[in-house]
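Section handout 9: paired folding examples.
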Amino acid sequence: MLKEFKEFAMRGNVVDMAVGIIIGAAFGKIVSSLVSDVIMPPIGVLIGSVSFSDLALAIGDGEVTVNYGVFMDTVINFLIVALAVFMLIKGLNSMKKKEEAKSAEPPKPSQEEVLLTEIRDLLARN
């Protein structure tokens, strides 16, 4: 059982997936920092709030709040990550289409093949 697990874990797809997950987690942290530290402060200044994540709506006696500022941070994080993934997939699809277009064209015959074809055609006429 241990041997089978080792074979499974060392397959290329599993290792590639693990690398992708690790890079994705790091990318998520970068995007979170971009949103909370770079994008939201200027927006917070524009709306008159020092910290965007402090925006909340008090319900009832004020002990319960709806933290819509934090939700907006999360939505912007999601939109940035979704845009990055979209651009990555779009680029990969574009490269794949170019590769398919190259393989769809028949290869040009070599000079030897051209000469042999001419000889064959001349012999067929006689």
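Moving on to protein 2 of 2.
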Amino acid sequence: MGLFGKKKVKEAIDLTSDRLIIEQLKNDDDAYITGLAKYMMEGSPLILNFDGLHIDRANKAIAFISGVVYAVGGHIVEINETTYLFGNKDVYSDGSVEQWLKNNLN
């Protein structure tokens, strides 16, 4: 098709696959946090729990990953006061994240 052909249909995000990363953080090593952020940028949603980190370390990690989310136009969903879902903009485009959260966390 030409330049103004049909729009490409986005595939639904399969959150039951290996794409979803769920971690209870006990390590705030910069390389580890940066690695998680790279996975998120590549399309893997992150559900991160910060209970295992000292408050200052947790805030540092949250600030860093939040900055990456902002840079890629993504969103953050607060699951509870110590657990958050981070994802790039494509993760939220089809409603599957909200449906997964509703089915698995309520």
